[in-house]
Fold each of these.
Amino acid sequence: MPTAKPSAKSEAARVQAIFDRFCAATAHPKTELNYTDPFTLVVAVALSAQATDVSVNKATTRLFAEAGTPAKMAALGAEGLEPYIKTIGLYRTKAKNVIALSGILLDQYGGQVPLNREALMALPGVGRKTASVVLNELDIEPAIAVDTHVFRVSHRLKLASGSTPDRVEQELMAVVPKPYLTRAHHWLILHGRYVCVARKPRCTACLVADLCPSRELFMGG
């Protein structure tokens, strides 16, 4: 006999409970990327594509000490930047983009980062995901950037069913309780990074395991 589909009311209560627990555990989650201002945040997020936060932080610790402003970064030039970030994947392309965006910030925005989605996405190397992370991290615009961790956790918790990151983002924005929209991205990514990992999720350590429809798949019933 098929399992009855939960009502919209019970499902909303389940989703609310999931995020209530995330909030109770960590009220103010933040990115694990190191940054000091909007410029260093944009650069760090752009560098983090297809790279770990740990590897980016190792590179930017020295980089930002030497070139933590658009002017100093632009002065390095792509060839001067490359040695700082050569341990990060796609470093040559990323170096060109960071130098180009630094020049645009100087030429068009007085050295300041424009904190709106359209302007951010027009910068070299800054796509929708990077813009979402920046705007959300700075509490400017609620956004849920969907990376591999967020995608996986959202599907396992049945918060979304979309087959693309953009679709999952749309679904999450619709179901996450409004007070939690600016923090949901961090909770989901950190949960996927440390608990709901890809191969062997740590269900016994999961604070929302009893609310997870996928739990039996990993705990053997």
Amino acid sequence: MLGKESVTSPVYLRLSVTDRCNLLCRYCRTDAQNLTAPGLPDEAMLRIVSAMARLVSIRKLRLTGGEPLVRVGLPALVRKLRGLLPKAELAMTTNGTLLHAAAATLRDHGLDTVNISLDTTHPARFAHLTGGGQLDAVLAGVQAARRAGFERIKLNAVLLRSLRDEQLSDLVRFAAWCGCELRFLELMPIGAGALIYARERVPADEALAELRRAFGHPAELPRSSNSRRYRFDVDGTAATVGFIAPVSYPFCTGCDRLRLDARGRLYPCLRSTEAWDLAPYPSDCHSDLKVRIGLRAAMSRKNAIQATQRVWPARSMAATGG
């Protein structure tokens, strides 16, 4: 039996529970990419995660998609994952449109933190960007998350030039008002994002410079594993703002993320063109061996990708859990 130390140090596992989504964001997927599978059954996902946990310490598990909350019975899956990984941070990234009804239950079932996508606070712009989404539903989700008492709530906004005239300062003001950390993410040339990348990309440094003009020079905060963080003064209220810049400032070195998609395929990196199928066999007698082989291969390939990969894959970002 292989010990945990024989595979790798602790990892951050991003688990896509479904490819499906109730929005059609222009930078995420096209109409052709929106007909996707619902994901493996709970039992199969739990068997994979359990087998991985016997080989490597999972320090953090993030539920992703697609939109995780379109998966039927997600709170029950959260409760089972909490029991399986009692010491890990259990997080979720969501578009927030369905969070209002689920936030309290998810928190009660063991979800620690939540990241909510919010690219603009203008209803018409939001509807256009998301293919008809309702901004009010997301704002209600933010408030429900606050009431539920999550340890941490973050707002994620993809930097887009077509939104720049109001996106930056308005979102910072909203983050200050609701007491959530705001993170601006550079647009990546992957999937549907590649189709709009040339005209829509805003480098993180350009966005930071604009916020300095709007709010003054910020205080620098300790960096997280993938973002530079600042504290701005917004009319006497502090707003914490981070910048995740995988194009301008790649953070491959030291990255411990693995991505398990909704079909049970393990990707060592968002850029990877290779994946290892960990979905359980009908009989589970060889499942641990399958996971062990796939995990070893993925971690080995991850190091090579970090050193040599310079291209972005054509698949939808949602196909690997964002």
Amino acid sequence: MLAGKPVYRWSLDTFLSDSRVDRIGLVLPSDHIETIAASAPEDDRLMLVEGGSDRTASVRNAVEALGPAADDIILVHDAARPGLQTQTITALLDGMKAYDAAAPALPVIDALKRRADETLQTVDRSDLYRVQTPQAFKAGILASALADKSGSFVDDLEAVEALGARAALVDGNERLSKITFANDFERMEALMAGQQAEFRFGTGFDVHAFEPGPGVTLCGTFIEHSARLKGHSDADAGWHALTDAILGAVSLGDIGDHFPPSDDRWKDADSGMFLSHAIMLAREAGWQLTHCDITLICETPKIKPHREAMRKRTAKLTELELDAVSIKATTTEGLGFTGRREGIAAQAAATLRKII
């Protein structure tokens, strides 16, 4: 256990929170598989793989079990390095755009000595690095490097070095240090549990006018009405405002930047697609949505009879607990365009937490 949960779960949970990860192989000793299976998260992407006699054999088993295409990117990570953060995954994937492999690394800053009998020799450290994991590879290259079952390597970069693979080194982090000795638990727990939680907040606002139609869609819920909302997509003002709030919290522009109304692909599109995309972008940037508060501003239709259905739809799409989703309605006391029953406005606030 480390800061309240098993060491392996820290890294596994980080991978599971990343929508770019298609499949995950958790490599275990054969006598641990049944125990871990009973407590592992339920996720279709996760498979438990029996390890081998050494690290190289274990990685080989995982690659074979995952069955990636040659051009897929595969990341190999030590569970004993629990400090994995989403931004490291992003840096590795960026590095893979021009290289065959990539790994996080830290420069060697201590003086290095080699012992020779009773004397010491200074080693030049200028081009030496402490290489960490995850290490990223084109799956075809890694599979080729592991094809010779007689080889055993200290890490997976060593396996591809003989093939002349070009490797990128991205910024490492002390949080990625490996638990090796007993006192490493105390040091790592201080890093994992002692870090102050970091939050960001974003706000969004959206307006749509009425036009003839059978009803409106608000927060993913259709409400029969004497008019519909005019817009290029389904004009769901509540979810549009929340989408902008999330994008604003992570400084990624607004909904129009990602889904411009001039693009016919988004004609009559379900706004849930926009909201899911904003959540995915936030996760890739290292932020997790933790709470949202939406206010719908209109004289008509009546929101209260549909509010709980809206909360449930929003909670399901955002993967938030129901008590983390607030939806309210108000009027403008007959003032302005909403008071004249010409349309609906919505404002939203979103809270995001830094993924550790």
